[in-house]
Each structure stands twice: as C-alpha cells, then as structure tokens.
Amino acid sequence: MTTPVRIPFPVVDEVSRHCLQEEEPETVHIEVHLPGPVDQTRLRKAFTEALHRHPRILMREARGPWYRRRYEWELTGEPDTEVVTFTPAGPRALQDARTRALTESPPLSMSPPIRLEVVEADSAAGSRAAGAARVGAAAPRQRGRATPPAPDTHAGSAQGTVLFLTINHTALDGPACLRILATAAELYGGQDNSPAAPPTRTPQPLQQAPDTPTTWSPPARVAPGTPDPSPGNGMLVTELPLPHRPKGSPYTVNDQLMVTTALTIAHWNREHGARPRPLRITMPVDDRPRDTTMPIGNGTRLVEVPFAPAELDHPDMSALLRRTAARTRMLKSLPRPQLGHGAAILTAPWAPVAARAALTRALRRAAAPWTSTTLLSNIGRIPYPLDFGEEAGRAHAVWFSAPARMPRGLTVTTASTAGRLHLALRWSRALLSHGDGAHLRDLFEHYLHTTEVTP
Q1: Domains and CATH numbers, the chain
Q2: Do 332 and 285 touch, CB atoms closer than 8 A?
C-alpha cells in the first residue's frame, strides 16, 4: 500500500487552523451566475476531472498525536466525498444556498475541503430583483433615481443556473478555487477558458507617499450597529456600475475602491458617534500566475493601507486618490511574508501544535485592538471567461465573500464581470444586522460615485 504524500501546513493555514471557531466558520463563498442550464452528469464529471488536473486540492488534514510538532496535509489522489450537489428549484433555494455557504464549512478531515452546490432553474429567477432576505442579494440601483435593474438573464429566465463554491479558508483561497472552476468550465463546455492578459498600465514611479499616517496606534473599529442575536456571519450582495476613471489616471479602480471603503466606514462611524481615529484597511495582494501553473492553496499576502481622519473629512478627492495610489504601489512593492514576520516564528515547530495553538489564540486576543479596521479584497476583473458552452453560457455575474470574524467584523469583497462591479458585504452578526448592511451598501454606492472625479 502506497503511503500518502504529506505536506506540512504553510504559515497561513496553520495560523487559521489554530484559531478556528465553530460560531464563525472560516469560509470563502464564490457565487457564479450562468444564463442557461447545466447537465448534471457532465458538470460532475468535469469538476471531478478539474480536481485531478490540480491535485494539490485533493487533500485532507492528516491525523496525528497530540504531541506532534506540525499539522500536515495528506494528499489523497481521489475525493473522499461527492463534491458536487444539485439543489432543486424553489423560492428560497438561492437564499438558503448563500446561508449554507456562510454557516456550513467543508470539513478539513475530508478531501477536498470545498463544496460545489448547483442551484438550478427558477430558483435563480428574480434573485437580484426580489432580493434574498437576510443573506441575499439587493436589487442593483442607480444613484439617486429609480431605474430598472440592468439586463439580467437569470432574473427573468427559468433556465438560469447559479454555482456556489464554498471553501474552507484554512486550506484554500478564492482565486485558487476560481482557477479550478475555470478548468472545469473548459472541460465541460469545450471552450477556451485561458486567463485574459492583465490590463496594461502606464508605469508610475515609486515614491514614499506624503504624510502617511502612523501604524503604531490602534486603528478605528467599525462602530457597532444593531447586533443580531444569532451567531455567525450575515451577507449582502449587489451589482453596481464600474466607477469611471479618466484615461491616464495615476490611480486604479482598486484605489477608488480603497478610498470608497475608507469613506464609507468613516461616515458610518461619525453617524454612530465614534471618536475619529486612523483607519487601516487590509488588502490581499496575489502575485500568482492565473494559468494552469497557478499554485493551489492560500497564496495571497496581506498589506495594510492607512488613512488619517483629517484626509477623510471633506477630502480633496483627486488628491486623496493620488495619495492612496502612491501608498498601495509602495506597499505592494515591499517584500513581506504573507502574515508578517511574527507569524513565521509562531508556526516554527519549536513545541507541539497544541501548545503553539494556545499561544497563538492568546496573542490574537491581545493584539485585537491593533487589528485593521476592515478588509477590502478586490479580485478585480475576473480573468477567465467561465464559459460553460453553448447551452449553459458564460458567467455574467461573479460574487466572492471573505470571512468577517471579530474584531474586524466587516469585510468588503469586489469583482468585475461583464463590465459590472459585483460587491459583497459580509459582517459578523455580533456587530451588525441586515439593516446595517443595507445602509453600508448605500453609503458605499454613494462614495463610489464621488471617486469619479474629472481630470
């Protein structure tokens, strides 16, 4: 009998494993809307074959004694369980699938630690127009006037399909699993799903951004709204126009989203009587290739973008966008371990994992006041067509959401597909309610518009 290959947990995986909480599962949710129906047998076969094309995803946590020094992934070669499930049509099918993506994490003890749920037929109809109560979608709205939703093939058709990928974030991140879904799309539909070339941008000189706020003091927290008595995360997804950006601007859409997030939280905190404090927004940076050589796992590194209270109070928008662009370029250019230098020390095998887990949790609680205000994860333009062939069609909406555990309590995730911005707000119910999420969405839409400055 062949001994399975084992891989020690990387730093990000181990820190996440130490800090798991049942009440707030560490899941990443990906939601892909297709205009037409899929064939169940073909999709299951294509997705299973995609797992074999990226064998690093076929893994489970290896068992070990309490005194072991490392957690290890055990590569399995075959799935331990059926990964693809199909949900029949129903008025709450879409909403319930979103709820499951936030509350039911694929177990680490089963390979692979992901789940693909396919919601079919009229369960996808009217998803944006009707909304989905506490975990669902909000109808896309134009600024300041009542307008009908943008053309939406799944909202009015009984043939649409929604693919829900739920990922255990201890093992994998969203971009890695999107790569696997792109492989499955190519195997299913026979269409080329190679990634598009990244957009070309005029190189900007790297320079230290002026008056960068200090990062030594504890940053602002998102002010509490109306906490929900139920545990876990809530979520709201919506579709917005991509913000206009003058040609040749020194800033990117990501910088506009960063400024929008900062202004949204500053406004929210003022409304709730919080004392002005510097904001720090965590931004994942992913340098991996997007083709089939992409390493599968947790591959992003985290940087923190600071904002001083004064620059968010009646800002000169053009100047703020330029300063933010300078900061983000500088931060992305600096070499840095994924979670910083301290995490590498914590995860060195100098003691059994049980002892290091207790220490990691204690340090995390102690460091809570210095945790960043929120996380903005901008996936950017979806690099793959996600074309499932003539009948199922090409994805016209893709949402991601990232875990929103306290003390941050709020994450903002964006992606663009078919020329539209797909925004997911996800929050800890210990901090906010669905009504709070809807208000934050409205503020985000307002401030996104204010970033559309003229040259």
Answers
A1: 8-192+208-450 (3.30.559.30)
A2: yes
